[in-house]
Amino acid sequence: MLNAIQSVYMMGLNACGVWAGYHSESKAKEYKHVCKRACQRVSCISQKFVFKVDAYLQDSPFTNAGTGSNLNLSGEIECDASIMDGKSLNYGAVGALSGIKNPVLVARRLLSETQKGKLSAGRIPPCFLVGKGAEQWAISHGIPACPTEKMTTKFSLSGYKRNKRKMELAEQVETKRKRQSCEHENNSACLDTVGAVVVDREGNVAAAVSSGGLAMKHPGRVGQAAHYGCGCWAENARDISLYSTAVSTSGSGEHLIRTMLARECSTAMQAENAHQALLEAMQNKFISSPFLAGEDCVLGGVIVLRCCTCGEAQRSEDIQALLVEFLWSHTTESMCVGYMSAQDSKARTHISRLPPGAVAGQSLAIEGGVCRLGTMSD
Prior knowledge:
Pfam families: Asparaginase_2
Order of helices and strands: EEHHEEHEHHHHEEEEHHHEEEEE
Organism: Sinocyclocheilus anshuiensis
Radius of gyration: 20 Å
Mean pLDDT: 82
Helix content: 25-40%
Distance between the termini: 32 Å
GO cellular component, one term: cytosol
Keywords: Hydrolase, Protease, Zymogen
Number of domains: 1
Strand content: 25-35%
Structural class: alpha+beta
CATH class: Alpha Beta
Shape: globular
């Protein structure tokens, strides 16, 4: 899809909406509109883009992150989020966090605090906080609290009541039901983790991800969105022969945690052919992973960005080019993505779907393309 802008020089590229699950045709415009608006919220592309876009996506009632998140067994909202800076390799994350409207802002603050160095008495600042401790830390650092009822939507509440009735009925008839994670109803409500990846004009990459978690999850459960190497990964190239990479994931958290899919995809991106590398990573490291041998329906999706200096690119005294490849892949029935450059007036959006006849959780879709970014030299 990016081939149409392959010859255009831009000053930075961002992508958002790791939104793997099921997206009905009737609501396609709403899903794409949310992605488009999220990308357009930030005009200056930098590390700040990923958490600002992620925060906007959290505010949308169409996503399972922040406002509108799935309710746990106790009827409460607990969110996970993380962010990673490819230049410093610093990381910040929160898990099972309640009472905060935009969890990714807490993750971003944790990251920034680690960059300040040690605390009093030589203590090492935390990079990952959970539960009440994360909420208290956020409030003490100026992030306002937000009651759960203000983050609950009619859709999430009705889903909770519907799922609770199903559980009660199953217990009454003593029926053991296999978790219905492959059905449309649960896909649309449970797997809509959101995220973003970005590269700036200097070639620095960053990634962020946030989620409300699975519906009816046990209180205290922490999904992939908070786990290191599972929800997101960003790493600047340390050598001219390597690629800078940024990855954000979505899907069934337990599947993504047990395979560390974000880091696996980042590692795979050092191969020459990015499309083939991502295809093999999704097939061998995810669908056919030995760590998921007992699963017959492996659900997940990724957006992947990699870049390097173009050796063959046209050059002038003040412009140098970065070759950027942006790909996405998923085993869920669909995934909504959006992307734009700093010079674009509006974002491009797309709902990717599995090929006809493909089985969700057992097959995959992969799309994407290449563009060039102009970078100002010193």
